[in-house]
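Researcher: Quick one. two chains, 470 residues in total.
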Amino acid sequence: MGLELYLDLLSQPCRAVYIFAKKNRIPFELRTVELLKGQHRSDAFAQVNPLRKVPALKDGEFTLAESVAILLYLSRKYKAPDHWYPEDLQARARVDEYLAWQHTALRSSCTRAMWQKMMFPVFLGERVPPETLASTLAELDSCLQLLEDKFLKDQDFLTGPHISVADLVAITELMHPVSAGCQIFKSRPKLAAWYKRVEAAVGEDLFQEAHAVVMKAKDLPPADTAMKEMLKPLVQVLLR
Amino acid sequence: MGLELYLDLISQPSRAVYVFAKKNGIPFELRNVELLKGQHLTKEFFLVNSLQRVPTLKDGDFLLSESVAILIYLSFKYKTADHWYPSDLQARVRIHEYLGWHADRIRGTFGVSLWTQVLAPLIGAQVPEEKVKRNRTNIDKALQHLEDKFLGHKAFLTSQQVVAVGCPLFEGRPRLSAWRERVEAFLGTDLCQEAHGPIFHIVEQAANKTLPDPSPEFYPNMLLRIFRIP
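Model:
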């Protein structure tokens, strides 16, 4: 059994891993784990990742969780071109810096924006207080400002002149609120231009393919009682 | 000017960077940035790190934030012993796996106790009991996972550096306790005490009611942080 990637393309980090693997022609078996159906909670999946989260990787006996760890593993093992995760000390540090920052900053606001704007009303049939949504969108806005000012600046890509895993992780995050109808690029021409560059570097087909699931999320049939029950703990976290 | 590290030892990621640099004999100038005095919000510090956060590294013209990025940078540049950030790919990515989980479950969770027990009361802000309870539960769950899933990996000290104020973290957790002792023995008691000095001092001052009030300009920031406690 070769490399297996356990993914749900509804999830941002899963998309980043998927795009990276496909773009670099890394041969793998895709194992879809549907989060909304609770498939990540199965005992079988716990064998792959005891923390029951996606993305997860299985390479022979070796299992691995956490998207950043997986991206690093894939880039080194399959000798992806250096620009993805550079060996140069300072260039690499810039990538590490972005990956660390985004985990506790952009990730959270993108997830909550998407859920509060779309998944709650459409999928869960739950009302989100307008103040909560407004506050989340404001937070997203500040993160986007930081993304532009602190990371992108006047560069072509987030960490320099070439695309890296940082750009993949960032763009897949931003597509989350986009899928919910948030027009994040409308008033941000610099970010919009960067988005176009990333999409072109990845390849439009692959980019669309990776985002097909999330872009259709707004058309999901409403969750049944069992699903709602299962998602209850998440609901509380996502309503901040 | 050589390597400069902008730190505040009451911040957990600052402690990790400090201990790592000291343990590995990396020469640096310590630049203290007192968070409780709002020194990270000054114009001067903005020029060092526009994200206005510590830890920050300055190596000549090269500026770097985020403790993980800094730790990796230091380990490469100063060629620290392999075990800190192993060259073996599988061992190395295990560390990143831990760090990803740590960012979700430890950061933002353990530090909350300093806010609920010390800083919020200091400025007369109320934290709903429900949130305090939730935080304790999250701490417990995180410790359980740490023990069950991660113990055994000598990852960067990021996890050892956690201090949850008022929470007897290692009570009833002999494995974690033993691990913590191993880490402390490896680092040396002096260095550990030095790194934790400021935060224990704050806790002590709070207990004696001698903790100075933060500057009023810093209140809105503090209130926002308190509000964000899940």
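The first helix of chain A runs from residue 12 to 23.
Researcher: Thanks, that's what I needed.
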